[in-house]
Amino acid sequence: YRSQAEHVRDELTAKALAALEQGGDAQAIMQDLAWKLTNRLIHAPTKSLQQAARDGDNERLNILRDSLGLE
């Protein structure tokens, strides 16, 4: 999981740096980077939580909540 997250980080950082080098608006680029990074990193865990809730799988929900530090 960590290597996947690092790959996403590196990919999105490279795109943001390229946009900055082309003279893009720094604030907009940074906001876009933060939004995309957040969405990419939380997508899979969110889908797993939703599926566990739909399935009524309380054991899996508890494991996911503990793993993700949710209350």
Keywords summarizing the entry:
3 helices, 86% helix, mainly alpha, 71 residues
Written description of the protein model:
This protein has about 70 residues and is mainly alpha-helical. It has one domain. Helix content is about 85%, strand content about 0%. The protein contains three helices and no strands. It has helices at about 1-20, 25-55, 60-70. Helix 1 runs antiparallel to helix 2. The two termini are about 20 Å apart. The mean pLDDT is about 95.
DSSP strand tally? 0
Compute the separation of the termini in Å: 22 Å
What is the helix fraction of residues, given as a range? over 70%
Please give the oligomerization state of what you see.
single chain
Q: Give Rg in angstroms.
A: 16 Å
The profile of the biggest β sheet is: none
Mean pLDDT: 95
Count of individual domains: 1
**Strand residues, percent:** under 5%
Q: Note poorly predicted spans.
A: none
What is the overall silhouette? elongated
Q: What is the structural class?
A: mainly alpha
Q: List the total number of helices.
A: 3
Q: What string gives the helices and strands in order?
A: HHH
